[in-house]
Amino acid sequence: DGLVAGTEPREGLWRAQTPQAARLKTFRDAFAVWPAGESPTDDAAVVERAGRTVRLVPGDPRLMKLTYPEDFALAEQMIARETRIGQGYDVHRWGPGDTAWLCGVAIPHDQALVGHSDADAGLHALTDAILGAMGDGDIGDHFPPSDPQWKGAASDRFLIHALERMRARGGRIVNADVTLICEQPKIKPHRLAMRERLAALLEVPLDAVSVKATTSEGLGFTGRQEGLAAQAVVSLTLPARSASPA
Q1: What is the greatest pairwise CA distance in the chain?
Q2: pLDDT score recorded for residue 20
Q3: 131 Cα distance to chain centroid
Q4: Is 198 domain-assigned?
């Protein structure tokens, strides 16, 4: 009648994938003794009915069966993806303080970066890169500096927002590359912590995240230590768009 009669405890349930593997002779022998007129639920059921032991092995949800027309349609959607590239740039000036936030990591310093939020130029540039890759505006569109609710906000909130919008469209990050341009503070001692923080936020392996630092050889506002600049490039994939009608 279409009503739920009960719910089985999930602890003892496994999701089985098809097709399933066995030696060819095992399958031939098992199917040879399968009752005529009876339809098996899957390959393992045939082998099990023949008295053989069926063992569970780890699977992958991407290894899907292709049996019915709708299976092929789903497979096409999974395979058809397009790669997008986005870049971001951000600048903040130095001001009074003893901590600089960069790429989600607090760095002790004799100055702090000044901004409406926590002024994390690395995260701001990365957020803009993701939004840009999706054609989804920029960080100022989503978090206007005129809005008091973002005063002093942690910049990972901005990055998480951009990632949520990307994932809502079926997107995923491929890799990210951030460059910090400054004379001080020294970035190298904190670079691994920055990469680990970004990898956790982006949900990618550590080797998919790069954080680099360079100086401007004493030139410009970064060379005069008036501020810090950050550049970010990100690669992501989205489900391919359907072709527009002619």
Answers
A1: 86
A2: 85
A3: 14
A4: yes
Q: Are strands 227-239 and 112-114 parallel, antiparallel or unpaired?
A: unpaired
Distance in angstroms (rounded) separating the CA atoms of residues 16 and 175: 32
Instruction: Give burial (CB, 10 Å; 0-12/13-18/19+) of 57.
Output: exposed
pLDDT band at 246 (very low <50, low <70, confident <90, very high): very low
Q: Residue 132's domain spans which residues?
A: 82-239
Is the domain of 197 the same as that of 130? yes
Structure tokens belonging to residue 148:
């008091």
Residues 99/152, Cβ–Cβ less than 8 Å: no
Residue 243 has pLDDT above 60, yes or no: no
Domain count for the chain: 2
* DSSP-derived secondary structure for 207-241: GGEEEEEE--TT-HHHHTTSEEEEEEEEEEEEEPP
Q: What is the pLDDT of residues 70-100, one digit of tens each?
A: 888 777 766 778 899 999 999 999 999 999 9
Give the global pTM: 0.68
**Residue corresponding to tokens 């990632």:** 163
CA dist list (Å): 131 to 5, 164, 230: 46, 11, 16
* Strand (E) or helix (H) holding 164: helix 156-168
Q: Last residue of a domain, which of 61, 79, 97?
A: 79
CA distance 237 to 81: 6
- The answer to whether residues 75 and 88 belong to one domain is no
Phi, psi dihedrals of residue 136, rounded to the nearest 5°: -115, 40
Report the candidate in 236, 220, 237, 141 with the shortest Cα–Cα distance to residue 181.
220
Kindly state whether residue 91 falls inside one of the protein's structural domains: yes
Evaluate whether residue 155 is within a structural domain. Answer: yes
